User: What shape does this take?
Amino acid sequence: MELLSSPQFWLGLGQIIWINIILSGDNAVVIALAARGLGPRQQKQAIFWGTAAAVLLRVVLTVVAVKLMQMPWLQLVGGLLLLWIGVQLLNGGDDEASGGPANGGLLAAIRTILVADLVMSLDNVIGVAAAANGNIPLLVIGLAIAIPIVIFGSTLMIRIMGRFPAIVTLGAALIGWVGGETLVSDKMIEPWIPHHSVGFYAAAALGALLVVAMGKYLQRRNKAD
Assistant: This one.
């Protein structure tokens, strides 16, 4: 009760919730892309369990975020992994027989959600960790509140993608953009390509173009087969 009566607790909780609202957009897109090929019941299961497990992983990741961010080549590998995930998600978009992550079953969708969220959260969790200021109960409560936010956003994105198929391509491009940003944010590359420089945004744009080009190529090849 003493914790709940502290103004600092509520201020920190508000900051964590706000940070998660801001940062949940790209995560909702990944979840929607991974789950859109499933049946309605499995979609709900993939969204719920994928989001819950991703938030749990984010709690663990936030605790060790500072040390992780200091590891060389970690974000480089993460960026390449995100590019691959973006291509696979787009490749699984229009062809039910393509076997992409979206159509690989419930466990495959959850696995894709977990891996993508883990990589995309590497730089985001720093802000959450700073807001929590070492208060683990505050961190857990704040991230738990983020679960319904991401679930609502993911469900809405699936409906939008069903009505406007072009959104799938834009979603994959967003993953490629984040992948390009993550790649050049690695501590071994950042000195040559500083954040918010022309090279930084060029790498992000190149990541988006690469994902869309490769995804569309694989789609055409699968249809031809």
